[in-house]
Amino acid sequence: MTQQTPAISKPCRREWIALAALLVALAAVGLRPSIRGIDGVGNYAYVGSLLAGGDLDFGNEYREFGRMQNLPIAEAAGPVSPKTGLIANRFGVGSSIMWSPFVIAAHCALKALGRPADGVSRAYEWAVAIATLFWSAFGLMLLYGRLRRDFEAFCAGCAVIGLVLATPLGFYMYAHGSMSHGVSFFAMVVSVLAVERAWAKPSMAMMALVGVALALVVEIRFQDASWAIVLAVALAIKQRRFCIYEWAALALAGFIVFIPQLAAWKVLYGSWFSGPLPYLNSAAGGFSPWPRHALDALFSSNHGALAWHPLIAIGLGGLAMSLKKPYRALAWTGLIGFAVQAWLVGSWSVWWAGASFGNRFFISALPLVAFGVARISNEKNKRFKMILLALLCAWNMGLLVQYATQMIPREEAVPWSQIVKQNVVDVPRRLLRLP
What we know:
Number of helices: 20
Largest sheet: none
């Protein structure tokens, strides 16, 4: 196959308007504001507790949200620290940091209107939902602009639309915004773009931006430290020269951004460098050195990432096709990063990602998967590619209906024959209200 040369281009105004209109239209149909579940409450608790009580004692937030949802959130959140007497929080502060401008605005508006600013009302759910939508949509726009530098509008459009409608990303953008995945997607997009820029034109400012982005990736989702390491190593290998001042700028900027997380660990557990104790002491599940569940995490009917969302497999195939110039560095980074992530997820006792739509742990891989999807779309037979993308979106939407209505269990494996039959027969009947 002949290697294609990138065609430098920029999106025109109509493309930006069309993409923005699509994202807004999907929000009008699918936005479901909520702060729910152990993950959602844990991600939000930092900013909610600081606004409502001026501290990081999450007991009130855990109990109140647990009461509203009839869930034992306080019991499941983690053990009480013997040093501080505070309930643990297995989640990072990054999501709360990203949401804080929107949540603080809602908090101030409630106070100005003389309404209860308790941190748990419907206004805060809307603030979190809008914040997640804003950051994830911003990430998609940045990603589309980057793809258009190398691919025509059809290819970039297939990649971005596919991420929203044929992977778990759309669900966590619109229907479950209190999870961390929408903001982690944005942080990963910025990290990939910053690292790529630092490959070509390193400078202290650009390296500092890389440090900020990578620190934020870890601060939002501790598990994504694997991606931060892979991207940092790729940057070190790809750079043609080593400048200690530039790397010092990266380290310093990353450390400054990570200070809120260190401070949270100090308050919660009594040590600046305690780390995420609920993971380190196995309160949030255990890890084994061997990824014995890796194949399950990828192919099981219980949220197997590639089986539930074949577009990810297609994107990985596109990266494998791009291991020669001009996309070699991005392709190797994406493939190695995905393999490391699969190893990490496969070694965890909760490899199926809990009550997850698809395997949400792999959402952080999507910015690089998008390059592979665009690469595949760049080949011939575009009409076939459009039909295939439509089928993948329909498959994903069918799974979403099955997940939302609990036609399939949210945390158990079921026969693929049942899943396929329900997607092809039962879901259309339900949607069309047929007997």
